[in-house]
UniProtKB/TrEMBL annotation:
It comes from Paenibacillus herberti. One of its GO terms (biological process) is proteolysis. It holds the Pfam family PrsW-protease. Keywords: Cell membrane, Hydrolase, Membrane, Metalloprotease, Protease, Transmembrane, Transmembrane helix. This is Protease PrsW. Its EC number is 3.4.-.-.
Length: 231
């Protein structure tokens, strides 16, 4: 019974955040099967990413900067971006800017959920520690997914001259902010841990703003207004 409770606590935050972001799509909800496919794909890339991270760590050694910006921020966000771009960017269901946020968050939260499950199974965990992980790592992955998806959504519908720049933003910015987040948590300067609460608060305010902007750019929003005028 205890194991079931711990596993539930490990899985619930990712599912809850994905459901919230899915329901924020105001105009044209994405197919559930495609969202779940990306969520499961996000889970599947965890082990290969961990193998690559471990190999690089053994090769180059470990220090807070490498662990934060190279292994966590760089490798993890690059893997998510690669999957997102090659599966979704040219998919017919990617038909409005907010879709980028839904699909990127699906991959990110799938990744975070399996990480949480592994943490619960292989390390001593309590319900409280898993809830703290929900507030930090799982929430962080959701925000990095929002950032990635927001700029990929802009790139999808931007003129060709701007699309490559926005695609670069969709990879570089989540990797950079993921690195900053990890560096705050792993830095030897212990006082920096107190920065993480306002950091996450500001990040969520930013993320909610991007959600609103992406929805406002939906072509279905204009169609809906035209139909209202006709009525």
């Amino acid at each position: 019974m205890l194991l079931f409770s711990i596993l539930t606590a490990a899985v619930a935050p990712g599912i809850a955040l994905l459901t919230y972001l899915y329901l924020k799509d105001r105009y044209d909800s994405e197919p559930i099967h495609l969202v779940m496919k990306l969520f499961l794909t996000g889970m599947l890339i965890v082990v290969p990413v961990m193998v690559i991270q471990r190999g690089i760590e053994l090769w180059l050694g470990s220090n807070p900067f490498l662990l934060s910006f190279g292994l966590s921020g760089g490798i993890e966000e690059m893997a998510k971006w690669f999957v997102l771009y090659h599966i979704i960017f040219n998919h017919t269901e990617f038909d409005e800017p907010y879709d980028g946020i839904v699909y990127a968050a699906s991959i990110s939260l799938g990744f975070a959920t399996l990480e949480n499950i592994m943490y619960a199974v292989y390390l001593p965990s309590t319900f409280t520690t898993l809830m703290l992980r929900a507030l930090l790592p799982v929430s962080g992955h959701a925000l990095f997914g929002i950032m990635m998806g927001y700029y990929m959504g802009k790139a999808k519908f931007a003129p060709a001259r701007d699309s490559r720049r926005l695609l670069a933003y969709s990879l570089v910015l989540p990797a950079l902010w993921h690195g900053i987040y990890n560096w705050i948590l792993t830095s030897d300067v212990k006082q920096l841990a107190w920065v993480i609460v306002p950091f996450m608060a500001v990040f969520w305010i930013w993320g909610l703003g991007k959600i609103g902007r992406a929805n406002a750019r939906s072509p279905f929003r204009i169609v809906g207004r035209e139909e209202e005028v006709k009525l």
